[in-house]
């Protein structure tokens, strides 16, 4: 196990220091953190199968008394996320629960207790999934429209299709959806993005996520409500679920921009898994390969994200 100095709250980026670990055993057995907020894609699994050692690491972490919460930018509801984990061989009972971007989006659209959401209309352009399965809007009282002129806002759950008023989904390419965004920007309607990720790991390949559409919309001058990491909203919900303060938490993730930058903003410690979406940038060719510290340092500075710990994978 390799150790380095810690200085996450450094006032100067050039002073960034992190501790490189070979696994989570030292942190888990020290019981330094009461709650562990775990990303799923790129940390626990790749969407198709668990990463080697991930299930065992979770089980051992549980025996150390850690409260574990899944915090994911998935546009799916929390219950679906937990069922997905079960199907991959994970034991859902090990977790306090799950908070997903999709769950937060559903709750905020349903309750409308927040002033921003209360001001939204009920008609939306719905960008969703096709191959991955469309997202249900049942119980939200929304009217899906296909004509931008009739829309009050955009709801971005996916990047593969346009939701139809009939409830079906019309498959579309990314550039086709972006043309619709051009029209929406001209009308100046806001967007709610239910998955802020730009890309995700899927069977070792990268797939474009709704955050890419949201970033494009902001460049067009559109207003975007980011419902997930790196916004503090998802960390606040996780702390409430686990009944802990920021000083007792650690967030584990593979995205510097979303997981680590989000943890920095929320004031909690973080562990960066190098074998996820940044593997190619870090020159990693196989699972478990250790990244060069200088390469991690440079990439962290580039993303303005400062991890407390760095690990090649989520293993014991």
Give a quick summary of the entry.
The protein is α/β, with parallel strands linked by helices and about 325 residues long.
Helices and strands, with pairings:
Elements (H helix, E strand, L loop, with lengths): L18 E2 L4 H6 L4 E4 L15 H10 L3 E6 L5 H10 L7 E6 H11 L3 H4 L4 E6 L14 E2 L8 E4 L4 E3 L5 E3 L2 H14 L3 E3 L5 E4 L2 E4 L1 H10 L4 E3 L5 H11 L6 E5 L2 H11 L2 E5 L19 H11 L5 E3 L5
Parallel strand pairs: 1-16, 2-3, 2-14, 3-4, 5-6, 5-7, 7-10, 10-13, 14-15, 15-16
Antiparallel strand pairs: 5-8, 8-9, 11-12
Structure notes:
The chain has 316 residues and is an alpha/beta fold. The protein contains ten helices and 16 strands. The chain has a seven-stranded parallel sheet. Strands 5, 6, 7, 8, 9, 10 and 13 form a seven-stranded mixed sheet that branches. The chain has a two-stranded antiparallel ribbon with strand order 11-12. The longest helix has 14 residues, at 174-187. It is globular and about 55 Å long.
Secondary-structure element order, as H and E? EHEHEHEHHEEEEEHEEEHEHEHEHE
Structural class: alpha/beta
Query: Main sheet?
Result: 7 strands, parallel
Q: Using the alpha-carbon principal axes, give the shape.
A: globular
How many distinct beta strands? 16
Low-confidence stretches: 4-14
Radius of gyration: 19 Å
Distance between the termini: 12 Å
Overall pLDDT score: 92
SS field, number of helical segments: 10
Strand content: 15-25%
The helicity comes to: 25-40%
The strand line-up of the biggest sheet is: 1-16-15-14-2-3-4
């Amino acid at each position: 196990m390799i150790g380095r100095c810690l200085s996450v709250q450094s006032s100067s980026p050039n002073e960034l220091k992190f501790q490189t670990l070979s696994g989570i055993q030292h942190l888990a057995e020290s019981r330094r953190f009461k709650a562990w907020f775990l990303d799923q894609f790129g940390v626990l699994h790749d969407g198709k199968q668990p990463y080697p050692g991930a299930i065992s690491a979770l089980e051992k972490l549980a025996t150390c008394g850690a409260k574990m919460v899944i915090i994911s930018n998935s546009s799916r509801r929390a219950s679906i996320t937990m069922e997905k984990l079960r199907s991959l061989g994970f034991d859902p009972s090990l977790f306090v629960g799950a908070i997903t971007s999709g769950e937060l989006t559903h709750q905020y659209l349903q309750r409308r207790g927040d002033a921003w959401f209360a001001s939204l209309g009920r008609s939306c352009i719905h960008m969703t999934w096709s191959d991955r399965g469309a997202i249900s809007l049942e119980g939200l009282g929304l009217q899906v429209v296909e004509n931008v002129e009739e829309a009050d806002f955009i709801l971005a759950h996916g990047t593969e299709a346009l939701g139809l008023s009939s409830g079906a989904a019309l498959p579309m390419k990314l550039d086709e959806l972006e043309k619709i965004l051009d029209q929406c920007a001209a009308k100046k309607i806001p967007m709610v993005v239910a998955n802020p990720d730009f890309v995700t790991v899927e069977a070792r390949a990268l797939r474009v996520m709704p955050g890419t559409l949201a970033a494009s919309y902001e460049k067009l001058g559109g207003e975007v409500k980011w419902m997930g990491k790196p916004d503090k909203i998802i960390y606040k919900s996780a702390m409430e679920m686990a009944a802990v303060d920021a000083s007792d938490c650690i967030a584990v993730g593979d995205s510097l921009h979303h997981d680590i930058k989000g943890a920095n903003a929320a004031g909690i410690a973080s562990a960066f898994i190098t074998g996820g979406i940044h593997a190619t940038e870090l020159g990693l060719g196989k699972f478990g390969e250790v990244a060069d510290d200088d390469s991690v340092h440079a990439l962290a500075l580039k993303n303005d994200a400062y991890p407390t710990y760095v690990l090649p994978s989520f293993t014991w």
